[in-house]
């Protein structure tokens, strides 16, 4: 058994030190580090404050909703953007295909209009080149 002077120099024996020593970090239970627990606490706080505001002054609720939306936007926008990216891509593809189809339809319509104009001009040229018969309606009653 150590002498009292040895205990003072040694600061007690190892067993006693182990009993009074703080637990190791690996022995401590881990706290959740994800942002979901913080978000749940925030939502709960906002819900309680919102219920209190609704009881006292309902006109404050729209402003509170806007404030919560402004607070949640930085966390939610990347997730929303990732979720909307496929929708955005398919929308752009659809609009592009629609534009291509509209160009095709416009080109076909323009071609049909040019065909009709060419037919009308051909008919007009054919009438202008045709010899005028005496006594026809176009020359009767006129003198040059």
Low-confidence stretches: none
Counted by DSSP, the helix tally is: 4
Described by strand count, sense and barrel closure, the largest sheet is: none
pLDDT averaged over residues: 76
- Percent of residues in helices comes to over 70%
Report the end-to-end length measured between terminal Cα atoms: 152 Å
Query: How much of the residues is beta strand, in percent?
Result: under 5%
Structural class: mainly alpha
Number of strands: 0
Shape from CA axes?
rod-shaped
User: What is the CA-atom radius of gyration, in angstroms?
Assistant: 45 Å
SSE ordering:
HHHH
Q: Which key phrases capture this entry?
A:
rod-shaped
What does this protein look like?
The protein is mainly α.
Summary of the model, kept short:
With 144 residues, this protein is mostly helical.
Write the layout of secondary structure elements.
Layout: H1 4-10, H2 14-20, H3 35-56, H4 61-129
């Amino acid at each position: 058994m150590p002498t009292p002077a040895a205990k003072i120099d040694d600061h007690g024996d190892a067993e006693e030190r182990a009993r009074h020593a703080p637990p190791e970090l690996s022995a401590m239970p881990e706290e959740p580090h994800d942002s979901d627990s913080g978000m749940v606490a925030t939502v709960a706080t906002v819900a309680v404050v919102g219920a209190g505001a609704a009881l006292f002054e309902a006109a404050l609720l729209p402003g509170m909703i806007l404030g919560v939306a402004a607070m949640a936007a930085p966390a939610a926008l990347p997730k929303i953007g990732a979720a909307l990216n496929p929708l955005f891509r398919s929308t752009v593809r659809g609009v592009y295909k629609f534009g291509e189809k509209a160009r095709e339809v416009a080109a076909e319509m323009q071609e049909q209009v040019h065909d009709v104009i060419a037919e009308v001009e051909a008919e007009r040229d054919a009438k202008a080149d045709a010899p005028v018969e005496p006594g026809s309606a176009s020359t009767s009653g006129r003198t040059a």
